Amino acid sequence: MTLQAQQTVTAGTGDHWLAVRPRLILASAFMLFLELALIRWTGSNIVHLSYFTNFVLLGSFLGIGLGFLRVGRSKRQPYYSPVVLFGLVIVVLTFPVTVDRDTEGVLYWTSLATTGPPAWLILPVIFCAAALVLMGPAELVGRCFPELPRLEAYRYDLIGSLTGIAAFTALSFLSAPPIFWGLIAAVAYALLLVPRPLVTYLGFVVVPSLAVVGLLLAETLTAGALWSPYYKVTFRQFEQLGVPVTDIAVNGIPHQQAVPAAARLEWERQYGLPYERVTSPPKDVLIVGAGSGTDVAIALSKGAGHVDAVEIDPKLRELGGSTHPDHPYDDPRVTTHVTDGRAFLERTSRRYDLILFALPDSLTLVSGASSLRLESYLFTEEAMRAARAHLKPGGAFSMYNYYRETWLVDRLASTVQSAFGHKPCVDVVSTAGQQAVITAGFTPEAQRCAAPWAGATAGTPPPALDDRPFLYLKDGDIPPIYLITLGLILAVSLLAVRVVAGPYRRMRPYADLFLLGVAFMLLETKSVTGFALLFGTTWVVNAIVFAGVLVAVLAAVEVTRRFRTPPLPVMYAVLLGGLALAWLVPNAWLLSLPLPLRAVAAVTVAFLPIFAANVVFAKRFAETADATTSFGANLLGAMVGGCLEYLALVIGYQGLLIVAAVLYLGALALLPRRPALV
């Protein structure tokens, strides 16, 4: 950093009432907390974000990178951040995008009926606002970096990030509503932004922060709103034909109903078909997607002696227990498991007469889903094989839903056929929404079909696999809507970097750090999705994995600070070896291991390349001439890596390791050839 820039930074931060180290920890914790809160809150009110699950994350990475690049170019405090946050909250609450409640069945992008602004209008607003909001805390973090040695600053940044994750995880565990997120943001802004001049501080920090708290308090107090670790859950109770009904929606999407078993069986034939297709009444039943309790109540009414009810969302389970007219969860024959359905199948040793996937995926069924969603690993061929392995010899597996498309019914039926070794029973109850029931016995003799299934039609996609669990991706390419959106994101990002940071030549010496950021994002994505498969796609697993990644990064920084590490070319060789190990170890082998041994093996395979990658980064970052510009380049690379995540739609998650390896080789080729770096 030039002497002039160093003086500018010192003038902007030297008079802060907090010492640099606690200020850096607080700012880093706030930055990550605010990022997680924005992802969580905007997704609960804008249904379009169900189709672009890392959209706010990309905006956050852009903003964080820009915040670091802005350091040294302005002495002004980033008062714009709370003002933009207030504007974002106003827009989202005033113009939420929810699903039209009159639309039945599952949802596809091409036929989505919503209320609120269209995607092409609201999504750019959210992306740009997220970037501007996160740019403020990032600038506060970046202003601390020149006041400390490179790796010490990075160390405290990581400690703060871990603190932010811990805080958000604790609030998720407590099912805390958004008002608490707003209060934490208001306090953080008040502590981090210098209150001079006082009028500006009051007008640009205190007033908008308090307004955000007030708006989130009003939302929190909305009747019928619960906040689970996954969703904003709303419900309404009414009578239909004299029958009490509880209608449940999540993130503005109609999801489930709590209806008496007798009424549900009378109104919708599909709920009773699994019991008609088995050869004997099932005594031991597993229900995945138990939710409101209606499917549990039906199983009990059919004579089940024991029901294992699996539901991933604790609030949906709680709501089913308190509102269902039949009170099925109070029955001593029912055991509840709040966990991921695939994870339960991999862990339990129990066998069943009937395993039922009961509408476990009735949210946003997206043509070309951009990322893992809660139930994705339930519909792969490997998941169907796991279900078959837990059936008794005369048992059966069944699943039902509104599938909307004929090819989707055929794809699932052919997946079941591949896993069970014979054709299943396929009952299309309603052709309007492709309401269908797919049932397969442990053997062909364990099922009673009304008519033989004709088989999958020509052009039906092959079964989804654990490596590519994108059930709703019909063609093996990236849908145009994603390509267009990602192209626009990158174009906006290039323009924003030029406007905020000046000429691109500032970052040219750090091209290798940019590639390190791109590759690391792909490596992190592979790790998160891998752990989701091995241990369950729950919020707890995700929080532990993200925290684990940061701990691995912190460990790499500490090793680099305290010990003499091998030269960078050697560390690159270790990194590439770790990637090769991750490529060679199959998920099927890891899933076959006992849980404790699986955890040890998975951590070793996943975190060896992460650790090596961050030793490489730490050694390179320690010798950079400009801490904030080089760190900003790395963060912008992470944003590009978030865009490249979508390559998994074509090449699978395992293929991301190859892309990451190529990027790391590119970073090695761009490494400045200076003695200080080896």
Automatic annotation (TrEMBL):
Matching InterPro entries: SAM-dependent_MTases_sf (IPR029063)
Record's keyword annotation contains Membrane: yes
CDD domains registered for this protein in UniProt: AdoMet_MTases
Chain segments annotated as transmembrane: 24-43, 49-72, 79-99, 119-141, 162-192, 198-218, 481-501, 513-533, 539-557, 569-589, 595-617, 653-671
Biological process according to GO: polyamine biosynthetic process
Keywords of the record: Membrane, Polyamine biosynthesis, Transmembrane, Transmembrane helix
UniProt signal peptide: none
One Pfam family of this chain: Spermine_synth
Keyword set includes Transit peptide: no
Record-given protein name: Spermidine synthase
Species whose genome carries this gene: Nonomuraea cavernae
